[in-house]
Amino acid sequence: MNASGSAPLGANSEVGQLRAVLLHRPGDELKRLTPRNNDQLLFDGLPWVDRAQEEHDAFADLLRSRGVEVLLLSDLLSETLGASGAARIQGIGAAVDPRKLGHTLAQELAAHLRRVPAPELSTILTAGMTFDELPVAANTASLVRRMHHGGDFVIDPLPNLLFTRDSSFWIGPRVAITSLALPARVRETSLTDIIYAHHPRFRGARRAYESHTAPVEGGDVLLLAPGVVAVGVGERTTPAGAEALARSVFEDELAHTVLVVPIAQARASMHLDTVCTMVDHDAVVMYPVIQDTLSAFTIHREDKGVSIRGADPFLAAAAEAMGIGKLRVIDTGLDNVTAEREQWDDGNNTLALAPGVVVAYERNVETNARLEASGIEVLRIAGSELGSGRGGPRCMSCPVARDPL
Ligand SMILES: NC(=O)NCCC[C@H](N)C(=O)O
């Protein structure tokens, strides 16, 4: 523990004892979802918001009961916006887009937002704002306003903030602010950037990877072992993003090996952590359909530059890089149909609290039974409403402090 009694920031594995985690309790942004926009906003259904909040509260309480400090993004954002004018200007600048609103309305809205109290600004930056909610006088000389419906968004909501895994990740003592691939999520990183840059809880935290051009999403990044990072390349993270990440962690001496893992460009496998997560030092829960075909390019840091090998079978390449004989695989589900159903419902997306102790959605009965049969302690949470965003316990959490392995 450091002087303030908090665990030191950082993580060098997926399974080190979890000490502190960043979550986002879903808010009014989920009430913005409609059948007309849920696809574009990357939700596969319309969650019952109150119940999603209850499910999330239960998730947070479970973590607290296991000694994990739960940091809530909205609290941190509100505190940051209240304490830092620079954070306020940065948050408003990312949200008020003159290309969308026109110069006149953008200026008026930004001026207004600079005056609202921090909690209200935090809600606007996360839940968005419609033209009907615009505090600007209706007679404004804004053609943009006159040509929009009242329900159109002036500031888009961010319903995927719930998935704090993707917009930042810690590697060693540093935090990486990611670059999210799809328009509905791009602005999330402006909020995580503000929090890590200005909130006292992260004072002194140094940055790892930062690329504003080549997408890398946190759900694609697995810290397989100290010095060994896997990064999925598929629907979200690009080869250029993986290459930039490898270069960055090598230069910062945060890793000696990066495994680049091609995955299908499909929603069901949108991130590597939807098909494979670590549940113990030497064990993964994995979607069996891809077990034999998952491959990896191994990028190794050399004295002068890097070496690239592959593609080789992922499991063998990972075990070699991790310096273990074999990576134990625990399958999703019993048969192909069950496996496909439970993979879709995030049965592979577990969050490890410690080696051999994971949080998983209760609905994935067969996968959870197979985890327990393999000696893994499974802490079950409800996800009937949370799951409509297509993310599980790992997606909904960003470990900011884990005991080093
Ligand atoms: N790590 C993850 O798998 N995150 C899940 C993100 C779900 C979100 N609705 C998305 O489509 O980006």
UniProtKB/TrEMBL annotation:
Keyword Hydrolase attached: yes
UniProt entry keywords in alphabetical sequence: Arginine metabolism, Cytoplasm, Hydrolase
One Pfam short name: ADI
Known pathway: Amino-acid degradation; L-arginine degradation via ADI pathway; carbamoyl phosphate from L-arginine: step 1/2
Superkingdom, taxonomy of origin: Bacteria
GO molecular function, one term: arginine deiminase activity
Principal place of residence: cytoplasm
EC numbers, comma separated: 3.5.3.6
EC class name: hydrolase
Signal peptide per UniProt: none
Keyword Hydrolase: yes
Catalytic reactions on record: L-arginine + H2O = L-citrulline + NH4(+)
Subcellular location: Cytoplasm
Residues of the active site: 395 (amidino-cysteine intermediate)
Family: Belongs to the arginine deiminase family.
HAMAP family tied to this protein: Arg_deiminase
NCBIfam families: arcA, PRK01388.1
The protein's name in its UniProt record: Arginine deiminase
Organism of origin: Rhodococcus pseudokoreensis
